Automatic annotation (TrEMBL):
It is an enzyme of class 2 (transferase). One of its GO terms (molecular function) is acyltransferase activity. Its EC number is 2.3.1.-. It comes from Streptomyces cremeus. This is GNAT family N-acetyltransferase. The keyword Acyltransferase applies. Pfam families: Acetyltransf_8 (PF13523). Keywords: Acyltransferase, Transferase. The keyword Amino-acid biosynthesis does not apply.
Length: 192
């Protein structure tokens, strides 16, 4: 069973060890010094930032991280995504990693994504959809999104997380299950 809780500052050593794992470092391209991890994850952990960093557990074992936020809380990011697709008010986004290398390739990614998306409908009742950009080169990530029920709705150039990657990105979307009307049909309401 998957559960999660907010990432806390005492979790930073674990998060650092995950960010240093080759399979995570390749795509997250994050500084792992204690100061850098505290700088980048501390504000959310302390509730000073509107994003949510969720430490995901499989049973009692921490296995990954999901970041979740409302796109309107980050206007520059919203504008970048809006260059590819119309972004409805209240739209959310997520990012994710499986930190425990023993759990990679076992279907955990799609399970994590599905679980957090389902919870998003309850936790954020005004969110009409979840939009997730992913590097076109990161096949494992976009396949996990597809397996979790998200649909590819756009592709184009976005700033990459890792400068080694090109700007080519896919944009995935899943709509709130009770979404109705032509907008839901046009974007392919997917249920996870």
């Amino acid at each position: 069973m998957l559960t999660w809780r907010r990432l806390a500052e005492h979790d930073f050593p674990l998060l650092t060890s995950w960010l240093e794992q080759p399979h995570v470092a390749r795509w997250w391209n994050h500084e792992t010094s204690p100061d850098a991890v505290s700088r980048d994850f501390g504000p959310a952990a302390r509730g000073e930032e509107p994003s949510e960093d969720l430490l995901v557990h499989l049973g009692d074992h921490p296995v990954g991280l999901v970041q979740r936020c409302r796109l309107s809380d980050y206007p520059d990011y919203l504008a970048e995504l809006a260059s590819l697709i119309e972004v409805p008010p209240g739209a959310m986004t997520i990012d994710y990693l499986i930190g425990d290398p023993r759990q990679v390739g076992r279907g955990l990614g799609p399970r994590m994504i599905r679980s957090v998306v389902r919870a998003t409908w309850n936790d954020h009742p005004d969110a009409p959809c979840v939009l997730v950009p992913v590097s076109a080169a990161n096949r494992a990530s976009w396949r996990a999104l597809e397996k979790a029920g998200l649909l590819r709705v756009a592709e184009g150039e976005l700033e990459p997380d890792n400068p080694a990657d090109g700007r080519a990105h896919y944009l995935y979307r899943i709509d709130r299950p009770d979404a109705t009307g032509p907008d839901a049909l046009r974007h392919g309401s997917a249920h996870g």
